[in-house]
């Protein structure tokens, strides 16, 4: 059924359709609408799940680690500081190989206090062993959440479905809500490969000395790598059932492009319009959307980018002292390709600053008109400010 | 693509108005996108919400800077807030007011439509006596001013989305549709409707 | 549906998990300390003259099981409505919570339970044993006599109670003012005792000849005539008109509801509860009472709270004044008072006094009431010296006239002359006679000792009847043995009362009713010392999951699986109320 709904509610709808059994979350803007809606579903009985109210995000993740260990399907949602507070337990969830699914609404880290979109929160968690999928619109948020459950449960790793604050989480647009029967076909009940069983009590997650620890880590790495292929197969099933498909990446007009812009999240949508405009003006420009960030689909990225001359990566995030994080990933994916294209890194739109079509065009022209990227990352739209203590308006 | 900006105060149902309109337009076959001003929402404080409609999928996902038309749910905002900021010339300003505003140069080049949505909301018992909720009345007026979405789409959206007293809200929308007054350029104040 | 990835993809999964079930590791083999469930005695129960199972009553009240809690009260005491009002609640002074914040309002909850039962006209399930074919005569229908009758009836004996006055109840009926104990409460409780088949013969004064005659018709006699006679001052002028016995005043006041009108200044000589009751009644009759007491206020025998309320109502206390003589004058009496001074403090903290050598004070009053204590009204009632043949129990004395058993109880034998002590002696006497009739004289003392609650003077009928409570050990739980980490500071619920202005003009009951939710909240403050209230801390804390929640062989709801219990003692430490014990493993 097609209806107009908010991105947050699209995620909640997917969680309901996935017949999640345990939810635990702590409210934080801009994630709140997701769990608000889910708590309503739990209260009115339309979702038969246990909703655990907890006192912090750390506890929410701890509760789900316990719940998931018993072999049930679990979900949480958070943002920014809340995600940071979970950090320790994010490692635990992946190390324990628990297929917990989380909606992460990208929000800038404080201070300065900021509730607007920025990917630095989720990207700070890239080494925790969580699958990360970035979404472009409400439909993708719904579909990716469904896929995330199946992917996580297939490879026994936790997964984050990531949404831009407000531009996606609070924006109403048409979303097709699939039939429950179809979702049930795509996503059968979770069959745990191991579980806490009172009938067969075992010790879990106990001491792992040097002679086994490394193999356990290797197992995570191998599972993570396999997730790329598994997702592809899941996509095949998904498109067969729902007649929509997504890749781990999505190239637009890349075949003959001299310059390819790389984006993630909602910027991709805006950029599609820019590409169309530039193409109609005769510019040979393409767009590569990165959906799957962990595991990083390096092979697929190389296939698309190695033919072009210049790559301009738009990063709504920053690893201080290095630069945009997507740009780093692209560079490392390309560096062993002979005659690889130049990679231009652009940092833009931090803390919710708008990334407009004009700004994306600027990035294109700057890339086209610069022979060689002088900086690892170029910060777009930086205003002249005096050094010192800035008192911004409320 | 048409872009609308709504001005109101927290608690008047401004955001809900854009959501209802989005749904009504969607029913009428449009692709829609609506969102509030991203930020902190407080009761009584000025709020903004936005609506984009198009016959095709809307790709742009940025803030809305140059609306084609604006809707003002609270007449006190008419002068305290720059409601014509970025407004394209020839655009309509739909204002909730019981009277025609005093002549104002800033309004030249725009069309003005006036509806006494507060009176209508009070009459139909929407909200409280001190804080009437005017959003559904404004939707009726909107439909008259812009010719879209058709009233049956608005009524459908109200029935689907408004849990509390949908009948009264629907009547308010209809009454506003009938009573909104359209002026061709506020300076001349020539009623055209 | 293909779900091909599920079937074909081989995703590595190496997690830190034991290969074998951890059940193979019998951690019980490490144990050298063994925990077990062992219920103990709460200090309140031990201090309660009738040995009420207070922690369990609170536990039931918290659960809202008001009827069960009330029945538990009735299993040890036929007068919960009365004691819930007039008992001097030594339980509350012994409450471990006192060291934490404030004692639990145990008496208030007892009254609530009794009132609730009365309000809903609940019928208790009382376990009446088969008739034993023996008859017991009971002299005196006060709390002691009626309690003996109640418990003897439950144990299967037929009882006749002989009362010298025209109505049963003894001091409860004649001495305690209505503002402390409404008549309806007493009459309902007496009716419940009568419903068990107990016959009460009023206007049957038993003098010594009659007493001897009773022996031929009964198998035993329980003597509980109380201390009915007011003590005398033994000073000149005591017989003057205008000088009256306080107890007599109270009795007249209670027999005639249209209270006499008093006026002017009235002296009440004495420092016990009767003196306070007289003074407060005098006040309600319209006069200004002054209590004249030879020691200090803090040495008075009356209950502290009664003194406080009396002062609040406007009763004056003249302390350290001893009457020397009384003279009659035209309209009233003149009292000559010797000022006293403290000449040391005795072991119990009371002042020893002596005249302070100043000139006596002469004060005139309209009337004088004497309330300096009571004594048995007939000499043969006295049972203060025990011969070697007597069996001296905690609250009563069993004496043999030849082979005929006579038990003395109530004020005649109890150390503290209170309602609750009298009830305790009646219950003890019933148990002692049952032992005597069933298995013989030699078993009386050991059997009664077996039923002792903790280390005090109280005995329990439930223990006597081999109820579950017999499994509790007599060790009295101390505050140090409570794990207070599990309790929050919560102030004691104050007893709601009539306003002072409402009190002083009528004999309406002062203490008001409380609601069920207030009672549950107050009962929830109870530590439940020494008994398991199913908090499940043991179950939750056991690191080996060795605590099983199921019916155990010992009868409890929880059991320890010693195959896995490694004796870490966490369960014992985390038991908030010392209902467990950790012992060295026997080799």
Description:
The complex is a heterotrimer of chains A (394), B (193) and C (587). By secondary structure, chain A is α/β, with parallel strands linked by helices. Chain A has helices spanning 7-17, 32-44, 57-69, 80-95, 120-123, 138-155, 180-186, 210-242, 267-280, 298-305, 325-334, 357-369; strands at 2-6, 22-25, 50-53, 74-78, 101-106, 131-134, 159-164, 172-176, 249-252, 259-263, 285-290, 292-294, 310-315, 342-347, 378-379. The radius of gyration of chain A is 21 Å and the shape is globular. In chain A, 54% of the residues are buried. The mean pLDDT of chain A is 96. Chain B has an eight-stranded mixed β-sheet with strand order 2-3-1-4-5-6-7-8, covered by helices on one side. In chain B, 32% of the residues lie in helices and 22% in strands. Chain B has helices at residues 14-27, 77-80, 117-123, 135-146, 151-161, 166-179, and strands at residues 2-9, 31-36, 46-54, 69-72, 92-96, 111-115, 181-184, 190-191. Chain B is globular, with a radius of gyration of 15 Å. Chains in contact: A-B, A-C. Chain A binds chain C through residues 95-97, 154-156, 185-186, 188, 193-194, 200-208, 212, 215-216, 218-219, 222-223, 226, 229-230, 233-234, 237, and chain C through 1-6, 9, 11-18, 20-23, 545.
List keywords for this structure.
heterotrimer; A: 394 residues; alpha/beta; Rossmann fold; 2 domains; seven-stranded mixed sheet; 12 helices; 15 strands; globular; B: 193 residues; Pyruvate-ferredoxin Oxidoreductase, domain 3; 6 helices
CATH class designation of the largest domain in chain A? Alpha Beta
How would you describe the shape of chain A? globular
* Class from secondary-structure proportions of chain B: alpha/beta
CATH architecture of chain B: 3-Layer(aba) Sandwich
Task: Name the poorly predicted regions of chain B.
Answer: none
Principal-axes shape call of chain B: globular
Oligomeric description of these chains: heterotrimer
- Spatial arrangement of strands, main beta sheet of chain A: 3-2-4-5-7-6-12
> The biggest beta sheet of chain A, please?
7 strands, mixed
